[in-house]
Write a structure and sequence with these properties.
The chain is of the alpha/beta class. Helices cover about 35% and strands about 15% of the residues. The protein has a domain at about 30-190 and about 250-265: Acetylglutamate kinase-like (Carbamate kinase, 3-Layer(aba) Sandwich), CATH 3.40.1160.10. The protein is built from 9 helices and 10 strands. α3 packs antiparallel against α4, α6 packs parallel to α8 (about 230-235) and α7 runs antiparallel to α8. The longest helix is centred in the middle third of the chain and has 22 residues, at about 95-115. InterPro entries: AceGlu_kinase-like_sf, Asp/Glu/Uridylate_kinase, MoSto_subunit_alpha/beta. Keywords: Kinase, Transferase. Pfam families: AA_kinase.
Length: about 270
């Protein structure tokens, strides 16, 4: 009987989980597809749900910034996601089903934001078209994507509870990482991360600059971002920091893009 034919490869015979192999590849340089890109995630709960009073000035600010900066706008889901999750959990839906449903809502917000940004070249981009971004940006368009990662029914178990751990904050971060972006900015309705909920505790302090490790050690009861993002940031090759800014204050997004001190910076 003839021997099995093996393609000649440096990974021939590997299980692809061997520690020594992983370490050997740890320092390999990766291609930065769009190194001057600014990924700006617009929260559904923090911005879009407020309607025209907040959204229209935000749209104008982003549109004007897009004239001088390469940008990818990523949308969150907001209150409708929370409503759907509440019903789904009550009915015993598995986490993967909840993730599949949540993605449809952030897609709706992406459609609306793309139309509102059409004056500045706003263009709806779907998940499978992410690698079309270099071409779209070269054409002077402003891409808009929904933020829910496409795990869908294959969403990771959350560890505790049923709520999908990979939502739109982590989706925006994963897009920034794979594209090798310059900035990943999360636009919220708060000035950044606080040591406690400032609505409850008047002594709560703004955390302006913090490492992932420090933030994990704090083990805060609540965060203005998805906790899963912290663990992803630890393993990132390109994106070494994430910024949280208040989108209700005009000029904050530009400050974050330019590297000025604003909101909270979480770094490795």
């Amino acid at each position: 009987m003839s021997k099995r034919h093996e393609l000649d490869s440096r990974l021939k015979g590997e299980t692809l989980v061997r520690k020594g192999l992983m370490n050997r590849h740890a320092q390999m340089a990766q291609l930065r597809i769009v190194p001057d890109l600014n990924v700006v995630k617009i929260g559904g709960h923090g911005a879009i749900d407020y309607g025209r009073e907040v959204v229209l000035p935000l749209i104008e600010e982003i549109g004007e910034l897009s004239k001088n900066h390469k940008m990818l706008v990523v949308t969150g889901g907001g209150v409708r996601v929370r409503h759907m999750l509440d019903i789904g959990i009550d009915l015993g839906m598995p986490t993967g089903v909840l993730a599949e449903l949540a993605g449809k809502i952030s897609e709706q917000n992406a459609e609306m934001m793309a139309l509102l940004l059409s004056r500045w070249g706003g263009t709806r981009v779907k998940t499978g078209e992410l690698l079309e971004l270099p071409t779209l940006l070269h054409l002077g368009l402003l891409p808009v994507m929904h933020g829910t990662p496409p795990y869908g029914l294959y969403e990771h178990p959350p560890g505790v509870g049923l709520i999908p751990p990979h939502r739109t904050d982590t989706g925006a971060f994963l897009m920034a990482e794979v594209l090798g972006a310059k900035n990943c900015i999360l636009v919220k309705n708060v000035d950044g991360l606080f040591s406690a909920d400032p609505r409850i505790d008047p002594k709560a302090e703004l955390i302006e600059d913090v490492t992932v490790e420090e933030l994990l050690r704090m083990d805060l009861e609540d965060l203005a971002m998805e906790r899963k993002l912290l663990y992803l940031l630890q393993d990132a090759h390109h994106v070494k920091e994430v910024k949280i800014v208040n989108g209700h204050v005009r000029g904050n997004i530009e400050k974050a893009i330019l590297g000025e001190r604003v909101g909270t910076r979480i770094r490795t």
